[in-house]
């Protein structure tokens, strides 16, 4: 069975204010289009002939595969286009029932978070086209596509070459629950504004599913204090403020800045950290929702996130199994 | 990431309400035939003008567009002189010689609404060049739309702004339509900010219905320009509630009412009022008072305009040249 | 400047007169800057700004991209905010690329704003055929701009006029287009060293005569003076009037001359049809109809794009011979 690959491309990733206040790269949509095309061709080389994709107002996927429609089926999900993160969440939810065996996402941490809000546990190949990219990898589109194709078709089983990542569950008193893949942070702010975080001044409490020293964003603050990779269960709680350490961390691209940290501690999976408003909750580096004065929220690290595909490993297994290799015969196109 | 003081929040709200009230009343007057000519109304896009302009001083300049009333209201324009101009009266900003599309106030650095799409960017870089030349830290905000981003003038100006590191901010009000033509039918890209990198300046995309997102991003770009770090391209995704011209336009269907309604769900003023209420900064009654005050001010401006004299016919030949000696060639 | 007993007949070429005007004006007024394509490092392809960069630096002598709309807008925005720009448009033909800035913006801003804008802006450009530069680098388009209220247009005929008119243009608080002619840049004449102004809107009777008036612009002034010599052999005593400023046009001086001589011909290098000569002729017949003993004649280029081949271009160019021949024709004499 050839399998189906899902495509989720966030047209808005890589364009936020961190191009202005930090030194983030711009990911223009022509570049995303090229990556999608390469990924699709990679997946097709791995035998995939059916794709399901999230529509977006830029028409990135439809433009990328315009001349491939003879060779494969491209099914546009019937979800509405609102030009917001809601599109990704809704598309993920619908993708769940569409027979998709592996999903390719293009975006940053925020994009994958939005996807996981709609469908938390499919095999995922996350290609980085965002700003803070702890979750997605810098991976060549062609190869990422091939890996996704191999997993979707079952040629490489997801259990062989993927791992389930951690999440931070967010429950807000009296409101709907939320989710982060890397970090949930309470800020002493009144407004969501331009969303991103580029100043340490208003940081209060950080709950990190991963604390990595070699990434950009909130995770790095913990990572430079007490590294805690995704492979290790548990989370790290960092209380910002004077009286303890000062960590010089890259909180945005190019922006190493001093972050005062009062305390930090490791917490176990399932252990809930309580925070209280007023403030703004930032999830995976973007200010998302406001907590009213006195309103409480619980932040819990769990291991119930997407199955992140190890692209390198998938292709090593494919090579070992001779999946891209056949014996010579007359009629083989040598080109 | 910017601390927004309560008085600034209320100021942004007030500017938005004054723009909307000004425009809604102007629309009625145009459609009832009381205001001659064509009005291009700014309703729906208020967050952009208010969120940017609240950062500016009188000595900072802006260039505007054919949809320029909102920019001047937000820059602190005199509503009486504005209405008098719309009515073609001698007491108007331009003595009745410019009308809606050329409304201006050089004392406030408002270098004119403009009847030519894409005319602003070259003028804006000139003003920014002048700011730098004169050694001030004034900046120039160049407002233009998605339609204007296809004019060669924008591209020439963007190149020169980055080349000379001019203190100019390109404020792209992407309302999704160039006149009646939807964006996807007039350019092959969706995020116009993607073009900024091609000229060597930062370009970002921001929600233009959220006055605070506008405020925060514009604040950073303006501070960057004042520091001498050069131009920025800010793309605000926004929406024009009314027609290209007037309120209901000429009745040709080029978009669905449902689309307008969907955008109105994220109305910038309602959004702001909800936040202010939540913060305890403005009650429903308080907000109603702001609207009432704006309406009273606008009505007063309209009354002033209607009571004002028309220009003398002899004014036709005045103001063409700066000195009387140079007044015109021999007729 | 005045202490030296300079010889009264210091003769310098036209191009040096322009350059001297720029330099002296810039010394006098720090708000003056010059911007245009290759005006700084190269000193303009015609040499009119040579030496300025060294003396005034790159802030005041600005090389621009090849972007006429942008350059013209730069001048407008700077003029509206307190500076006194000189904008150089290399060839007059290139004015076509920035007509919106000139015609819709610069010319109209003052009027549209109810008189409040002051635009002390000088646009310097180079007209004229005769250098085998063909159809896009040779035109004389001054009539276009004379038709637009809000602009002034001057067309110097020699080095003395080039300097004096440039000084007046730059000091004027209105947008003034200075149209120099590339083929007379080497012409030498007496030019005072000091800064002097030739008032705009005042014509100059450059050769007095009694029985024929030639009104000539730009390069045609010197050609008309030669024609006058040729015609003196026929017993004609030709008066040559140089309007110097085309807009505003000094009707009074020209009409006074025609009332004296009773015959008139207008000579310009631009295409004859719809040229500024048509306007001059109309004004003469309106104001001096009863004084005219012959129809008002006109010499201009034929109605064709400027050709490339020297043979064709020679055919195209109005000259002293052609002017003299046309005068004779008007007078019913054998050509």
Q: Which short descriptors sum up this protein?
A:
A: alpha/beta, Rossmann fold, 2 domains, 7-stranded mixed beta sheet, 6-stranded antiparallel beta sheet, 8 helices, 17 strands, 32% strand, B: 331 residues, 5-stranded parallel beta sheet, two-stranded antiparallel sheet
Question: What is the topology?
Answer:
The complex is a heterotrimer of chains A (about 325), B (about 325) and C (about 325).
Chain A: E1 4-9, H1 18-21, H2 29-45, E2 50-53, H3 60-64, E3 73-76, H4 85-95, E4 100-107, H5 109-118, E5 123-128, H6 141-153, E6 162-164, E7 167-172, E8 178-180, E9 183-187, E10 203-208, H7 218-223, E11 235-252, E12 255-267, E13 272-276, E14 279-283, E15 286-291, E16 296-302, E17 307-309, H8 311-320
Parallel strand pairs in A: 1-2, 1-4, 2-3, 4-5, 5-17
Antiparallel strand pairs in A: 6-17, 7-8, 7-16, 9-10, 9-14, 10-11, 11-12, 13-16, 14-15
Chain B: H1 6-31, H2 46-53, E1 61-63, H3 69-74, H4 79-86, H5 120-133, E2 140-145, H6 152-163, E3 168-174, E4 177-178, E5 181-182, H7 196-199, E6 203-207, H8 211-226, E7 232-237, H9 257-264, H10 268-278, H11 284-307
Parallel strand pairs in B: 1-2, 2-3, 3-7, 6-7
Antiparallel strand pairs in B: 4-5
Chain C: E1 11-13, H1 14-28, E2 32-36, H2 52-56, E3 61-63, H3 68-80, E4 84-89, H4 99-106, H5 109-112, E5 122-127, H6 142-146, E6 152-154, H7 159-171, E7 176-181, E8 188-190, E9 204-207, E10 212-216, H8 219-232, E11 238-242, E12 245-247, H9 251-261, E13 264-271, H10 276-288, E14 297-301, H11 310-316, H12 320-330
Parallel strand pairs in C: 2-3, 2-4, 4-5, 5-7, 6-7, 10-11, 10-13, 13-14
Antiparallel strand pairs in C: 1-8, 6-12, 9-11
